[in-house]
Structure of tRNA pseudouridine synthase A:
Amino acid sequence: MDGPAIDAGGGHVRLRLDIAYDGTEFAGWAVQEGQRTVAGVLNEALSTVFRTPVRLRAAGRTDTGVHATGQVAHADVPVDALPNAYPRSPRPAEPEFLPLLRRLGRLVPADVRIRRIIRAPAAFDARFSALRRHYIYRLSTAPYGAEPHQARYVTGWPRVLDVEAMAAASRELLGLHDFAAFCRHRDGATTIRDLQRLDWSREGELVTAHVTADAFCWSMVRSLVGALLAVGEHRRGAAWCRDLLTATHRSSDFAAAPARGLTLVGVDYPPDDQLAARSLVTRDLRSRD
């Protein structure tokens, strides 16, 4: 078992939490006054369990209506608060925080789950240690829209899509670029990103995009999908998509795809002995994002 990720002399231990949620009824991840958010709900639950204020910091601050099956966050918890999380000690074969998971499972609402809690390795930071984030975007081209059991997670797009054309245009966007045309503006924030994967698959009427980058700026995935849908409907060509990379501001030539189809499915981290170095590099690049 790794020791505390932060100075034990400070009396705290850093925990890593793996989280899933249905974003339909959340106003995104980040805490907002007067809004129901994922972080707000979880901070309240964790603060109740540990009997001290707890604040989560996440790998990706998902927007309103966006889902997650692979969100990662960390929290710093006082060492002397840890016993308050447990009604009993775990059995020898059980993970250390299994009693805490069970308690939180009863405390948090059904549309958010903490799936795993572990002591974080030294220097772990959910946001700044991350190497890349993985998203998927799902659409249904069925003429009647998405199936009822998928309607919260799949965008109905009952029009013909040329998936091969979308895939060809996607390849033009891969690599390190300024994605200003695809990002909502944040003062002082860089829009340069390394887009490592953007490909499409079709299974019957279900069309799925797999999108991976070192990080994503505000609304970037949904904007990429929205632009590529214009290509898939033959309203625009692959060259138009590529030319958007020369823009210096958010383009008004297309609309971002609806939030419901987007899910954060995973976050990659380097080996433990490289976490600190990765955090330093990322903080230098993203500290104002």
Summary: Residues 12-129 form a domain with the Alpha-Beta Plaits fold (CATH 3.30.70.580). The two ends are 33 Å apart (CA to CA). The chain has six helices and ten strands.
